[in-house]
Structure formats: structure tokens, C-alpha cells
């Protein structure tokens, strides 16, 4: 069955709306100074911090998000719909609101922050705060991706394994996880990409301290005020990294 021809017009307009700003960045990039701008000390520190914290937050998303997705997809209990909505809330919540919520949870006068303060642990405005902010906004991407993979995979093979005497942990480890591995990889890649581009919650909860909490998006925002060419060059770096990450995510999804 073919596609109605009139759909191509809004489709092309939509594609142009997304692609033209990227073309504008490429066109405005100061290529003669490109290497000099992206290899400055502050740029390298920001990029290294972004990659390090994004990798850490992605690992935390996997450790906590996989059990959460399995429970949501494989069980049924009262209030499950409400719990799912709350878990996915960071997807639609303004990042700055997420940052304020984290500040009032882990800050010095926050819900848990006072306990941490007694123990001599300072969470807010530290590299740990960057990881927590990135994990908060990225976790739903992994949960949504993996829960969808679990539901589409069905439970037939798990039922067969259980009928043969396999314990629930063995079924989960040797049947469930291999079945949804492409979905898990796709969710992890998307969580990494979201962590890499996180800005609002990070600047609210972690601040902008060079080498400690200033990630690449924050560096771009600050450079925009003092060196617009550097901001454009760093933006292009972030776009290229995001394109590569999305490419990996598409490969993972096509393998499902």
C-alpha cells in the first residue's frame, strides 16, 4: 500500500525545520580556528567531564532502570499505572524543575542532604551532583525502551524455561536478558545521549565550576557570551557526538 503523495509536503517541511538549524551551525563554524577552539584547556576539561559523567550516569541507569523496567513489564499490581507515570515524569518535566527537586532532596538543607551533611558528604555543586542530575533525566529513556522490548518479546520462552524447572533468576539471566539485549543497548545509548546534552538540571543542582561541574553544554552556554565562535565550534562537536550515538541506537533497534 502506497503513501498518500500529499504527506510528502509536510514531511519535507518537517525535515527542513530540523535540518536547517544544523546546516546553519555548520555554515557558521569558524573552520580556520576549529581545532584551536575545541582543543582549548577549558573545552577539553568540559568534554572529558561530560563523557565521564555521562558514562557513569548511564551505568547507574542500567543498574536501576533494568529492574524497574522488568517489574513494570512483567508484573501487575495496584497503582502500577501511577508508578509508571511518575517514573516517566522526567521525560516531560522542565529540567530546571528537576534540578530544583534534586537540590531540595540532596542539598545541605534537603530531605536527605542534612543526613549526608552530618556524615560529611557534600552532594550539591559537586561532580556527584552532575551524575545525579544526568541520571534523573536519562533514566526514563532506558526504562521506556526496555519495557517496550520486554512487552514485544512476549513470555513464551520464559514460560518454557520455567516449566523445565529453571528458577526465576536463571530465567531472567539466561532467557529474558538475551531476548531484550538489543532493546537494552538502545536504551543505554539513548540514556547516554540524554546525559551528554543535559543542561537545566545540571546548572541548577551542580552549578558551573570549571573541571568539577562544568560539562560541555554549560561550557557552550558560557562561551556564547564571550566567544561566539568557540560556542559554535563546541556545539558542532556536541552535534557530531549526538549523531554518532543516535546511529548506534538505530543499529541496536534494527537488531530487535
UniProtKB/TrEMBL annotation:
Query: Is Lipid biosynthesis one of the keywords UniProt gives this record?
Result: no
SUPFAM superfamilies, per database record: MetI-like
The way it spans or sits in the membrane comes to: Multi-pass membrane protein
Residues that span the membrane, as ranges: 7-27, 47-73, 85-107, 119-146, 175-193, 230-249
Where does the record place the ABC transmembrane type-1 domain?
A: 47-249
Compartment(s) of residence: Cell membrane
A Pfam match: BPD_transp_1
Keyword field contains Transmembrane: yes
The superkingdom of the source organism is Bacteria
Q: Per UniProt, which keywords does this protein have?
A: Cell membrane, Membrane, Molybdenum, Transmembrane, Transmembrane helix, Transport
Q: Return the InterPro entries for the record.
A: MetI-like (IPR000515), MetI-like_sf (IPR035906), ModB_ABC (IPR011867), NifC_ABC_porter (IPR006469)
- Give the protein's function: Part of the binding-protein-dependent transport system for molybdenum; probably responsible for the translocation of the substrate across the membrane.
Task: Indicate the family of this protein.
Answer: Belongs to the binding-protein-dependent transport system permease family. CysTW subfamily.
* Protein name per its UniProtKB record: Molybdenum transport system permease
| Recorded name of the encoding gene | modB
Amino acid at each position: 500500500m502506497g503513501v498518500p503523495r500529499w504527506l510528502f509536503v509536510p514531511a519535507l517541511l518537517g525535515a527542513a525545520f530540523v535540518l536547517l538549524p544544523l546546516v546553519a551551525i555548520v555554515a557558521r563554524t569558524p573552520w580556520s580556528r576549529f581545532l584551536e577552539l575545541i582543543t582549548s584547556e577549558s573545552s577539553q576539561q568540559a568534554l572529558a567531564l561530560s563523557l565521564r559523567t555521562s558514562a557513569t550516569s548511564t551505568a547507574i541507569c542500567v543498574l536501576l532502570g533494568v529492574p524497574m523496567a522488568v517489574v513494570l513489564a512483567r508484573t501487575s499490581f495496584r497503582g502500577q499505572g501511577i508508578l509508571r507515570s511518575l517514573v516517566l515524569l522526567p521525560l516531560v518535566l522542565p529540567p530546571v524543575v528537576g534540578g530544583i527537586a534534586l537540590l531540595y532532596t540532596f542539598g545541605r538543607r534537603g530531605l536527605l542532604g542534612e543526613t549526608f551533611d552530618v556524615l560529611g558528604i557534600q552532594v550539591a555543586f559537586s561532580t556527584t551532583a552532575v551524575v545525579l542530575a544526568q541520571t534523573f533525566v536519562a533514566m526514563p529513556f532506558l526504562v521506556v525502551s526496555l519495557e517496550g522490548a520486554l512487552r514485544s518479546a512476549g513470555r513464551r520462552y520464559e514460560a518454557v524455561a520455567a516449566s523445565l524447572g529453571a528458577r526465576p533468576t536463571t530465567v531472567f539471566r539466561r532467557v529474558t536478558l538475551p531476548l531484550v539485549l538489543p532493546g537494552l543497548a538502545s536504551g543505554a545509548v539513548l540514556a547516554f545521549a540524554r546525559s551528554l546534552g543535559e543542561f537545566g538540571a545540571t546548572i541548577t543542582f551542580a552549578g558551573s565550576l570549571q573541571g568539577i561541574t562544568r560539562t560541555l553544554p554549560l561550557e557552550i552556554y558560557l562561551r556564547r557570551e564571550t566567544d561566539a565562535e568557540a560556542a559554535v565550534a563546541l556545539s558542532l562537536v556536541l552535534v557530531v557526538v549526538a549523531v554518532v550515538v543516535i546511529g548506534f541506537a538505530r543499529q541496536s533497534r534494527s537488531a530487535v
